[in-house]
Amino acid sequence: MRTLVLAIAFLTLSAQDWPQFRGNPKLTGVGTAAPAPPLKVLWTFEGGEAFDSSPAVVDRVVYVGAQSGELFAVQLADGKLKWKYKAGETIGESSPAVWRDLVFIGDGEGQVHAVRAADGQRAWMYRTGSEVKSSPVIVDGRVLIGSYDGVLYALEAATGKLVWGYKTGGPVHATSAIDASGLAYVTGCDGILHAIRIATGKEAFEIRIDSYTGASPALDGDFAYFGTYDNEILAANLKTHRIVWRYQHPQRKFPYVSSAAVSEGRVVVGGRDKMVHCLDARTGKELWNFMTRARVEASPLISAGRVYVGSGDGRFYILDLKSGAKLWDYDAGAPFSASPALSAGRIVVGTQDGHLLCLGN
Fold first, then answer.
1. What are the strands of the beta sheet with 203-208, ordered from one edge?
2. Burial group, residue 80, by CB count within 10 angstroms (0-12, 13-18, 19+)
């Protein structure tokens, strides 16, 4: 019954809105009904400082954190501010997650915040031992979130009470990916992919990756896909507990901090080599790459046979998933490091100069 409940939750969340980082608990970065190019800017919201945080969208409200330490709630229809909440002094890559009537996010002072979606008032706060750049994931009424103190925390979503803490061998930058069997997978700065039982906080198994990684794993079937700082993209078999393939570009040796998107047997990842890479999910063979003009640290979104991704060159690209051909781009005038969200046929993404853009038809 537990597995069935988790599976149904995944289907419900992925069919509606964009409630967390990468859109769903498996972190696949896949959405439905994305707008076809060409797009236009429907509205722009001025956040004041850079957006490293990626938006969540639920019930036509956009939630996103800024480097100013503020969590904003903005109307998807017109970009008007609904409310703002001051977390810590900064919010980095931690991206909001929405569960029932609460919005969760971490900050640079090591605090995890639960904020009421209706009015932006604090419901609770939990303090970890170091900065929080990991994004929250909610499963079975628990918030899973990592901290640079090396611990993956499970907190009661309703109260903020600590359920358990799992200690890794290094800072936890990545976001946990959740499968339907009740396991959380987190790539660590300790060079290990950890599989942790959500019910107990005990490790089920680990897979050595022998590399530092800040990228979050994307789950598809029995496999997890993620990049590393040793210039590789890996596929881990979650049944055999082995790395089944490693990809490295033959000439351009650069780290991967972008989290993978996985759809239709293809793994799409941005690289600090200025490229977007598309690999065969089964073999790791590169199917195509697309060269931008700067680092691609943002994570791509896949929908309707297209790839949506921003680059450090200040352009937001739409690429054909099968061929890698550029279908459209938009010059925002400032770099992208945050990843896009998709809801109601609109793309929402923040820039490094503090603009939150809504793109659509």
1. 177-178, 183-187, 192-197, 203-208
2. exposed
With bands split at pLDDT 50, 70 and 90, how would you rate the model's confidence at 210?
Answer: confident
Query: What number is the average pLDDT over the span 58-75?
Result: 98
Which DSSP state fits 25?
A: T
198 token code pair: 């959500």
Type and span of the H or E element at 6: helix 2-15
* Residue in the block written with tokens 């040796």: 253
Residue 16 has pLDDT above 90, yes or no: no
User: Look-up: residue for tokens 């939630």?
Assistant: 63
| Token pair listed for 300 | 């791509």
Domain ranges (residues) in the chain: 26-360
For 146-153, the CB contacts below 8 A with 24+ separation are 146/171, 146/172, 146/173, 146/174, 146/175, 146/176, 146/186, 147/106, 147/110, 147/171, 147/172, 148/110, 148/172, 148/173, 149/110, 150/190, 152/176, 152/184, 152/186, 152/194, 152/196, 153/112, 153/126, 153/128
CA-to-CA separations, 254 to 208, 232, 249, 313, 346, in angstroms, rounded: 21, 8, 9, 17, 32
**Peptide bond before residue 217 is cis, with ω within 30 degrees of 0:** no
Joined together, the tokens standing for residue 353 give 């100069």
Q: Which two tokens stand for residue 268?
A: 């799409």
What is the residue whose two structure tokens read 């990626």? 54
Measured distance CA(146)–CA(335) in Å, rounded = 26
Residue that the structure tokens 């055999």 belong to: 240
What CATH code is assigned to 26-360? 2.130.10.10
